[in-house]
Write a structure and sequence with these properties.
Strand order of the largest sheet: 1-2-3
Largest sheet: 3 strands, antiparallel
Shape: elongated
Order of helices and strands: HEEEHHHH
Helix content: 55-70%
Length: 160
């Protein structure tokens, strides 16, 4: 009786596929390890912004939470409440935007991973959808998003 070659062996039908799967799994393990490292780094990150007149400094954490407000002078006592409120709001928004940019820069290292998952597995993730909440914290995001929607709409006209 003739011996049948192992279809999963090195010379078998599925041998190279097994190697490709193992290489993909090794790459995913490396990406997962790096993601854990970045997550740990980001959990210790913060963004700090000081007003132009150096009267107040705000500090926010990786999820935009307020970590500190420091008043360096007593000048705020002479400000109208609405003026102080606007100053603090502007500083906090700027610090949150900076923190969001840090997170986006860190996540850009994984830009091709979503495509790799989508190709390899059904129902992979979309990195742009994951990053959208962070991008929305950036000043001017609404105008950028509207321009992108208009551009996408124009492109749809040519596809039909």
């Amino acid at each position: 009786m003739p011996t049948t070659a192992d279809p999963f062996g090195p010379d078998g039908l599925f041998g190279s596929m097994s190697e490709e799967i193992e290489q993909a799994m090794e790459a995913m393990r490396a990406h997962q390890k790096r993601a854990e490292e970045i997550q740990a780094e980001l959990s210790r990150s913060s963004a700090t912004v000081t007003s132009k007149d150096r009267m107040v400094t705000v500090k926010v954490g990786p999820q935009g939470q307020v970590l500190g407000l420091t008043f360096h002078t007593t000048g705020y006592q002479e400000m109208a409440p609405s003026q102080l409120g606007k100053l603090l709001t502007d500083l906090l928004n700027e610090a949150r935007a900076q923190m969001g940019e840090q997170v986006i820069r860190a996540m850009k290292q994984f830009e091709g991973v979503g495509d790799m998952l989508r190709l390899g597995l059904s129902g992979g993730s979309n990195l742009d959808q994951l990053l959208e909440p962070l991008r929305s914290m950036r000043p001017g995001h609404d105008a950028d998003a509207e321009a992108e929607r208009r551009r996408a709409g124009r492109q749809e006209e040519f596809r039909e």
